[in-house]
Design a protein that fits this description.
Blueprint (H helix, E strand, L loop, with lengths): L1 H11 L4 H8 L3 H8 L7 H11 L3 H4 L15 H21 L1
Length: 97
């Protein structure tokens, strides 16, 4: 659900509802209402939320569970290093299970 995705992303970024509200130009109560599934953000706000967290609207709405990482401005070598780090993390997670 969208409410859970917003909260999950906010917590993963280590920011408070107040900080997220400030970044998006809304009240803390507005963020709280989204996270508690009392109201849904507008389409325009959904786009802002996705932009802030650097995810797609489809990801927020759970139509697409893949996440992307913005590697614009990085060299091919730097991008390759990031891919290796991601694979290392996945492999470590598999080994731990």
């Amino acid at each position: 659900m969208l409410c859970e995705m917003i909260k999950k992303l906010r917590i993963s970024y280590g920011i408070s509802q107040v900080k997220l509200a400030s970044e998006l130009g809304v009240s803390k109560q507005c963020v709280s209402n989204w996270e508690n599934d009392n109201v849904q953000p507008s389409i325009e706000m959904l786009v802002k939320i996705a932009g802030f967290f650097k995810v797609s609207c489809d990801y927020l709405l759970e139509f697409d569970c893949s996440r992307t990482i913005d590697v614009n401005g990085l060299s091919e070598t730097e991008t390759a290093h990031i891919k290796l780090i991601i694979e290392d993390i996945k492999n470590a997670k598999k080994a731990a299970n």
